[in-house]
Amino acid sequence: MKKAVIEAQGSQLQVKEGDVVTMDRLKQKPGEKIEFINVVLAQDGEKLITDNKALKKIKVQGEVVEELRGEKIRVTKYKAKKGYRKTIGHRSDFSKVKINEINM
Predict the structure, then answer these.
(1) How many domains does the chain have?
(2) Are 29 and 64 in contact (CB under 8 A)?
(3) By CB distance 3.0 to 4.6 Å, which of 6, 49, 69, 85 could disulfide with 36?
(4) Residue 89 CA to its chain's centroid (Å)
């Protein structure tokens, strides 16, 4: 089984063929292909690949499945005895990506 650790948008994800992973919103729209070239570590069966020259040749190909939004997060600020209260919130944007192939 082929596995890889890829770096995307400043975070590292462990993926294998057929996985559906959630990551921060990508520029690609649903149905478009995406290729991850920043591979940190790879495994092909029992063989572990850590050599930089070999890792630069490995490419992970995927497809954006859907775009979604996360749960609303509320943040409350409060200062005692000052009458200061403030509530803000946000929802993060995510993309679901299906890993189709790991080319070694």
Answers:
(1) 1
(2) yes
(3) 6
(4) 23
Tally Cβ neighbours within 10 Å of residue 39. 21
Q: Are 63 and 100 in contact (CB under 8 A)?
A: yes
Instruction: List the alpha helices (DSSP H) in 33-89.
Output: 52-57
Bridge partners for 48 per DSSP: 43
pTM of the predicted structure, to 2 decimals:
0.81
Give the residue among 103, 97, 96 at the shortest CA–CA distance from 42.
103
H helical segments located in 3-84: 52-57
Give how far Cα 59 sits from Cα of 40, 53, 71, 72, 86, Å: 11, 13, 32, 35, 46
Q: Are 33 and 61 a contacting pair, CB within 8 Å?
A: yes
Give per-residue pLDDT as tens, 58-78.
999 999 999 999 999 999 999
Both structure tokens of 35? 């290729």
Q: What is the pLDDT of residues 26-58, one digit of tens each?
A: 999 999 999 999 999 999 989 999 999 999 999
